[in-house]
Write a structure and sequence with these properties.
heterodimer, A: alpha+beta, seven-stranded mixed β-sheet, five-stranded antiparallel β-sheet, 15 helices, globular, B: 278 residues, mainly alpha, 0% strand
Chain lengths: 518, 278
C-alpha cells in the first residue's frame, strides 16, 4: 500500500518557532473571560453546548487542531498518514503525555474514546463511527489505526476537540458515563486543569505544569466568568473586570463601542470551523411556500444588506448559498438575488400568491433577532406579502420548529468545517425527521440534491468532492430550500495585551494553549 | 352647582381633559399625519430629533419615532378602554349578585375574588399572555382578568349599603322582580363610583399594556409605546430619544386620565371634595 505521509508536525513547529522568535512570550498571568450562558457541565464528551466547548476545549484535547483555513494541525496526534485509497488513517500520538491526575496517556485511551465512549454518547461522532468506520485499533502504545468502510472526506475534520474529545479510559471504563462523579472534576490532557467551579459565578482553570508541549501554556490561570445580563457583561469589560468577551457575550450593537476603548482589540476570526449560517427556514408543506417562484420573489424582496449593516452593525457577510464562504468547497458561481422589490413583486404575482397571511415564528434569541424579523416583515409588506410575527420563548420555538408547526422562522446552524457534516443535514430528505430543530424541518425534498450530497461525502478525491458540491450549490441557489440571510460573525473582544488568543478555527475554544499576556 | 361646573372648577381636571382630547384627535388624525406604516424604515438609523426631517428622530432601524407614537396612541387607548369594559363586565355582575343576595353566594364570590387578589396582578398578566401567546385579544383578556376584583368589591359594598335603603325595600314590597330591582333601582345609583373607577382603570390598563410590551410580551405586530420604550432601552446612552418620547407619551396619558378621574369624582361626589373636607 502506498502511503501519503504528512510531516505537518515538524513543519508547523518550525514555522511557529520562526514567527514567534520576534516577540518574546511572557510566562505567567491570569486572564478573565466572560462566557454566556453558564454551561450545564464541563465533561465535553457528554455535552457540546457552546459554553461547554469554550471552557472544556482547553481542558480536553482531540487528535487534531485546525487552523483558520481548516487545515489539520497536530494535537494529541503528532503526525498522521492516510492510505492512497482514503480508507486507512494511522495516527502517531505524542509521547510523554499524562492525564491531569498524573496517569499516563496512551493509544488505549484513544481507542476507548473513539470506539467505545463516543460511539455511545456523542451525537456527531456516533453516526460517523457507525456508518463509516470499520475498525479502530491500537498498533502500539503510541499508534492508532482507523479503517473506514469507504472513503469519507470529512473524517479528519471530525477530529476537532468538541467533535471527538479524548477521555481517560482509567476513569470511565466500565462505569455509567453520564452519572460518573468524575464528570464534575473533568480530567483531560489539555494545557489547563480544572480547579474549581463556583456555580453561578465562575470556573477556575489553572496551568497544567506537566503539559506535553514544552513551555506551554504561558498563562497561569483562566477565570471563566458568568454574568447573566448582556449590559452588565459590557460594563464588566469596560471597567477592566474581565479581559475577554467571547463571541456572543455582548449585544452586537455594543461591539463597536467596546472595541473603541483603549487597549481593546476585536476579531471576527476563530469561528471558521463553526461558520454560523443564518437563514429563514421555509415550511415547504404550507401552500404557497412550496412554490419556487414565490420563494425567489421573497429572496428579492429582502434587503439583506440592510440586515447586515443596520441590524447586525455591519458584522457578517452575505451568503450565496448553502455553504458558507468560510467552509471548504464553497463556490460563489451561483444564481444570486439582489434586493429588487420590483422583480420580487412580479415573481410573487406570477406565483399565484393571493395575499393570504403567513406566520413568522420569531427566534427568541434577543433583540437583534426581533429587530431583524421586523425589517423582514416590512420588506415583505412592501411587495404585498402579509407576514405576521408570532412570538414565543426558547422551549416554544424549539418545540414548534421540531414539530414542523410554522410557516417561516429564523434558524442558524454551524457548518462544522465540511458540508457533509454541517450542511447536508438541512437539505437532504433522509433528514426530514421530527424532534430536532436542526433537522430538515422545512421538509425540502429534492432527489438530485440528495444524490449529490450523498456522493460528495464518500468520493475519495478532493477535486471530485468540489465538483459535486459546486453542482449542489448551483442547484440549491436556484431552488431556494431556505432563504439564506447572513454568514454570521461572532466578534471576540479582548484586551490587546492578551496575545495570540485566536489562532485556530475554533478560536478561544482551544486558543489558550498559545495565548500569553503582556 | 351642577356636576359640570364642579368638574370645571378643578383646574387639573381641565388640563387632563385637554390632554385627552388632544390624544383622541391624534388617534383620529393618525392616518392623515403619518399615512405610512410606523414599522417602515424611512430614514437614517438613530437620527437625532429635529436633526433631519423627523420631529422626534428615528429609532435603531431608521423608523420614525413620531409616527410610532401617533400610531401607538391608538393601540394604547384601544387596549385601555376595551380591557376596562371587559373588566367591568366581569366585575359589576359578580359584585351586584354578591352584594344583593349576601349569605353563601356572597361568601363564594368573595373567596373567588380574593383568590385573584392574592396573586400579584402583573405576574398573573404575564402568565396569561405567555400561555395564550401575545396578541391583541390575549392582552386585553389578561388585563381584564387582573383588573376586575376591585370592581367586584366596590360594587358589592355599594349594593350592601343600597340594598337596605327604603326605596329598595319599597320596590321589594311592591313586588318588583329581582333583576329589575338590581338593574333599575340599585345599579343606576352605583354609576358614580363606577365611572370614577373606570377612568382610573383605563390609566392602569395602559400602564399594564406598556409594561407587557416593554418586556417583549406585546403583540409583535402592533406598534405600541411600551414596545418602543423596550426596544430603545438598550441604546439609551447613545440615542435617548427612542425610548424617551414614548415614555413621555405614556406619562402624559396616564396623568391626564388620573386628573380627569379625580375631576369626575369631584363632580359626582360633591360632598367628598377636597376643598370641602378642609
Amino acid at each position: 500500500m502506498i502511503m501519503r505521509t504528512y510531516f505537518v508536525a515538524g513543519v508547523a513547529a518550525l514555522a511557529f518557532a520562526l514567527s514567534s522568535a520576534a516577540q518574546a512570550q511572557v510566562q505567567g498571568g491570569s486572564v478573565s473571560v466572560v462566557v454566556t450562558p453558564e454551561p450545564p457541565m464541563l465533561m465535553q464528551a457528554l455535552n457540546q453546548n457552546g459554553p461547554t466547548n469554550m471552557i472544556a476545549g482547553n481542558i480536553y484535547e482531540s487528535l487534531l487542531r485546525f487552523n483558520e483555513r481548516l487545515e489539520p494541525q497536530p494535537s494529541l496526534a503528532q503526525s498522521w498518514e492516510v492510505s492512497e485509497d482514503g480508507t486507512v488513517y494511522t495516527f502517531k500520538l505524542q509521547e510523554n503525555v499524562t492525564w491531569h491526575d498524573g496517569k499516563p496517556f496512551s493509544a488505549d485511551d484513544v481507542v476507548f474514546s473513539l470506539d467505545v465512549f463516543l460511539r455511545e454518547v456523542h451525537p456527531r461522532w456516533r453516526p460517523i463511527v457507525n456508518n463509516q468506520v470499520k475498525s479502530i485499533e491500537k498498533v502500539d502504545n503510541n499508534t492508532v489505526r482507523l479503517t473506514l468502510k469507504q472513503p469519507f472526506g470529512p473524517l479528519l475534520l471530525a477530529m476537532e476537540t468538541a467533535s471527538a474529545p479524548i477521555v481517560p479510559k482509567h476513569i470511565y471504563e466500565g462505569t455509567a458515563y453520564a452519572s460518573n462523579p468524575m464528570n464534575n472534576t473533568p480530567i483531560g490532557t489539555g494545557p489547563f486543569k480544572f480547579k474549581e467551579w463556583n456555580r453561578g459565578s465562575y470556573v477556575h482553570l489553572v496551568k497544567n505544569e506537566d503539559y506535553w508541549m514544552d513551555g506551554r501554556p504561558y498563562l497561569d490561570e483562566i477565570y471563566w466568568r458568568f454574568i447573566p445580563d448582556a449590559a452588565a457583561r459590557a460594563v464588566a469589560y469596560e471597567t477592566g473586570e474581565v479581559d475577554v468577551l467571547s463571541g456572543g457575550a455582548v449585544d452586537i450593537f455594543d461591539v463597536p463601542r467596546l472595541s473603541q476603548l483603549e487597549n481593546s482589540c476585536v476579531t471576527s476570526k476563530g469561528w471558521e470551523m463553526f461558520a454560523p449560517h443564518a437563514w429563514i427556514t421555509i415550511n415547504h408543506r404550507n401552500g404557497i411556500l412550496g412554490n419556487q417562484q414565490f420563494r425567489q420573489g421573497l429572496m428579492h424582496a429582502i434587503d439583506r444588506e440592510f440586515g447586515r449593516d443596520v441590524v447586525w452593525n455591519g458584522f457578517g457577510q452575505l451568503p450565496t448559498g448553502p455553504i458558507s464562504s468560510k467552509t471548504r468547497f464553497y463556490d460563489a458561481e451561483v444564481v444570486t438575488y439582489d434586493y429588487d422589490p420590483e422583480k420580487a413583486r412580479e415573481l410573487i404575482k406570477a406565483s399565484g400568491y393571493t395575499g393570504e397571511p403567513l406566520e413568522f415564528l420569531a427566534l427568541p434569541y434577543g433583540e437583534t433577532w426581533t429587530r431583524w424579523a421586523e425589517t423582514i416583515r416590512q420588506n415583505f409588506a412592501d411587495v404585498g406579502v402579509n407576514l405576521q410575527i408570532v412570538t414565543t420563548d426558547v422551549p416554544g420555538w424549539t418545540q414548534r420548529t421540531s414539530e414542523w408547526n410554522f410557516d417561516m422562522t429564523f434558524n442558524f446552524l454551524y457548518q462544522l468545517g465540511d458540508p457533509a457534516i454541517g450542511v447536508a443535514r438541512s437539505y437532504i430528505s433522509s433528514n426530514i425527521i421530527k424532534g430536532s430543530p436542526f433537522a430538515n424541518v422545512g421538509g425540502y425534498s429534492n432527489e438530485k440534491a440528495d444524490q449529490l450530497f450523498a456522493e460528495a461525502a464518500i468520493v475519495p478525491k478532493e477535486e471530485e468532492r468540489q465538483a459535486l458540491y459546486t453542482q449542489v450549490q448551483k442547484l440549491l441557489a436556484e431552488d431556494l430550500p431556505v432563504l439564506w440571510l447572513l454568514e454570521m460573525d461572532y466578534p471576540t473582544i479582548h484586551r490587546c495585551n492578551v496575545k495570540n488568543l485566536v489562532t485556530t478555527a475554533i478560536g478561544i475554544n482551544d486558543g489558550f494553549r498559545d495565548a500569553w499576556k503582556e | 352647582m351642577n356636576a359640570f361646573t364642579r368638574f370645571a372648577s378643578n383646574r387639573g381636571a381641565i388640563v387632563g381633559l385637554g390632554l385627552l382630547l388632544l390624544l383622541v384627535a391624534v388617534v383620529l388624525l393618525a392616518p392623515l399625519l403619518y399615512p405610512q406604516s410606523p414599522w417602515r424604515m424611512v430614514g437614517r438609523p438613530m437620527g437625532a430629533p429635529l436633526a433631519g426631517s423627523f420631529l422626534l428622530g428615528t429609532d435603531t432601524l431608521g423608523r420614525d419615532v413620531a409616527a410610532g407614537i401617533v400610531h401607538g396612541a391608538r393601540v394604547s387607548l384601544l387596549i385601555g378602554v376595551v380591557s376596562t369594559v371587559v373588566a367591568l363586565l366581569i366585575g359589576v355582575p359578580l359584585g351586584a349578585v354578591a352584594g344583593y343576595f349576601g349569605g353563601l353566594i356572597d361568601d363564594l364570590v368573595m373567596r373567588f375574588t380574593e383568590f385573584f387578589q392574592t396573586i400579584p396582578s402583573f405576574a398573573l398578566a404575564i402568565v396569561v399572555v405567555a400561555i395564550l401567546q401575545p396578541t391583541l385579544l390575549s392582552i386585553v383578556l389578561a388585563i381584564a382578568i387582573v383588573s376586575w376584583p376591585p370592581v367586584t368589591r366596590l360594587i358589592r359594598g355599594e349594593f350592601l349599603s343600597l340594598r337596605s335603603r327604603e326605596y329598595v325595600q319599597a320596590a321589594i314590597t311592591v313586588g318588583q322582580s329581582t333583576p329589575r330591582i338590581i338593574f333599575t333601582q340599585i345599579l343606576p345609583n352605583t354609576l358614580a363610583p363606577i365611572i370614577v373607577m373606570a377612568s382610573l382603570m383605563v390609566a392602569t390598563a395602559i400602564l399594564l399594556e406598556s409594561s407587557l410590551s416593554f418586556l417583549g410580551l406585546g403583540d409583535p405586530n402592533l406598534m405600541t409605546w411600551g414596545y418602543m420604550v423596550g426596544a430603545g432601552r438598550s441604546r439609551i446612552i447613545d440615542a435617548w430619544w427612542i425610548s424617551f418620547f414614548p415614555g413621555v407619551a405614556i406619562f402624559l396619558t396616564v396623568l391626564a386620565l388620573n386628573l380627569v378621574g379625580e375631576g369626575i369624582n369631584d363632580a359626582l361626589n360633591p360632598r367628598l371634595r377636597k376643598e370641602d373636607r378642609k
